[in-house]
Amino acid sequence: MELAARVAHMRGTGGNGWGILYRARAMIAAGEQVVMLTIGEPDVRTDPAILAAMAQSAANGHTGYTDIPGIPALRAEIAARVTARTGVETRAENVLVTPGGQAALYTAHQVLLDPGHAGLYISPFYPTYPGTIRASGAEARAVEARAEAGFQPAKADILAASAGARTLLINSPNNPTGVIYTPDTIAGIAGACTEADLWLISDEVYETQVWEGPAISPRSLPGMAERTVVLGSLSKSHAMTGSRIGWMVAPEAVIDAAHELAINTTYGVPGFIQDAALFALRRGAGFEAAVAAPFGRRRDIVRDVMAGSPVVGLTHPAGAMYAMLDIRRTGLSGEAFAARLLDEEKIAVMPGESFGAPAAGHLRIALTLEDGALEAALLRLRAFAEALAG
Ligand code: PMP
């Protein structure tokens, strides 16, 4: 019996460096103490008040089938949020509620790409990106953002890769680099999309984690709203990863197609999860700032610990919950360094190679560990790197 080729195509060739994560998990399962700086999940649980709203909604009976593109109040709330953040008039009809940002990523590429097209994405990249693009049958084509350019993608490189392409996927604030695209970068991206007639898919799931702005949503640039799809999520902004709740904001024709896809796939997002999301969004900017605050503190810790190191470089971390360390002066690859750090110091980090070639010789640190433990682990990492180089 044979399987469809679709998923094999989606899987692609696989990344490098994931072995570190699996090995660290196996060590923990075998009872060893390992400091985990690998996974991008907030280290706090969903706020009890949000859970209470969820439970109340379920108890009130919002447990049946619900509005497939999202309940009207939540679509309106998201539209108002996006209007306020981008200055672009956005209506509930421009919003589709999805089971998480990942489903919004998948939906966007499904409705915009066909086999024979190419979908562009910026490398280094969030690891699901190429597979999500290939799931549409299209070719996933990387545009490299270089370490030497602070991982800011260049307009010329996007244009050079654009033959046969229909979409460009970007992410700012960025996972894995912690970079925020500058106004010049955003203008270059918008210009490239207009010149090459590309849809822009802007993954803004880290929009509340901005340490040094501005973080510009490209949908706000002239002429961009009609060719931009914005993806959002409550996973990071409200520590709701397990609730699987996010959205897609796009021109109405895109939302109509996405609605059709949802009818045939998810059949909507549970009503009590949507009610909890509405409650969470209505708590406002103060709550979001409080959820983001620990990551901002920890990015200062990374900066202070690595300051003045003759060996370890730090890509300027302007946003998101990650820091990208440059360990090329040790002479080791990111993978080799991470393997030795795990064996000799029992610290697990992600090798840059797992996020694409431009991040080779780097390590991604997730700032998801309590401040004191993070600082202690980073001091050990720095000493380890300096001894290797030394
Ligand atoms: N985009 C990026 C860049 C991410 O890092 C993540 C999660 N780590 C997602 C999208 C998807 O998040 P979720 O599906 O939980 O909203």
Q: Nutshell version of this structure?
A:
The protein is an alpha/beta fold and 390 residues long. 41% of the residues lie in helices and 15% in strands. It is built from 13 helices and twelve strands.
Task: Describe the strand arrangement of the main beta sheet, using strand numbers.
Answer: 2-8-7-6-5-3-4
- Give average pLDDT, whole number: 96
Low-confidence stretches: none
Q: Indicate the CATH architecture of the largest domain.
A: 3-Layer(aba) Sandwich
Measured distance between first and last alpha carbons:
57 Å
- The CATH class of the largest domain turns out to be Alpha Beta
In DSSP terms (H or I, runs of 4 or more residues), the helix count works out at 13
Order of helices and strands, N to C? Answer: HHEHHEHEHEHEHEEEHHHEEHEEH
Percent helix, as a range, is: 40-55%
The structural class is alpha/beta
Largest sheet: 7 strands, mixed
Q: Strand fraction band?
A: 5-15%
Instruction: Give the overall silhouette.
Output: globular
Number of structural domains: 2
Which ligands are bound? 4'-deoxy-4'-aminopyridoxal-5'-phosphate
Describe this structure in words.
Its EC number is 2.6.1.-. Residues 33-379 form the Aminotransferase class I/classII large domain. Its cofactor is pyridoxal 5'-phosphate. It catalyses: L-aspartate + 2-oxoglutarate = oxaloacetate + L-glutamate. With 390 residues, this protein is an alpha/beta fold. The protein folds into two domains: 5-45 and 286-388, Aspartate Aminotransferase, domain 1 (Alpha-Beta Complex); 64-283, 3-Layer(aba) Sandwich (Aspartate Aminotransferase, domain 2), CATH 3.40.640. 41% of the residues lie in helices and 15% in strands. It has helices at 5-11, 18-29, 48-59, 72-86, 101-112, 129-134, 155-160, 183-195, 252-263, 271-282, 284-306, 334-345, 371-389; strands at residues 35-37, 95-98, 118-123, 139-144, 165-171, 199-203, 228-233, 246-249, 313-314, 322-326, 347-351, 362-366. The strands form two sheets. Strands 2-8-7-6-5-3-4 form a seven-stranded mixed sheet, with helices on both faces. A five-stranded mixed sheet has the order 1-11-12-10-9, with helices on both faces. Strand 9 (313-314) and strand 10 (322-326) form a beta hairpin. Helix 3 (48-59) packs across helix 10 (271-282) and helix 4 packs parallel to helix 10 (271-282). The radius of gyration is 21 Å and the shape is globular. The chain starts with a helix and ends with a helix. The mean pLDDT is 96. 4'-deoxy-4'-aminopyridoxal-5'-phosphate is lined by residues 40, 100-102, 126, 171, 175, 203, 205, 233, 235, 241, 246.
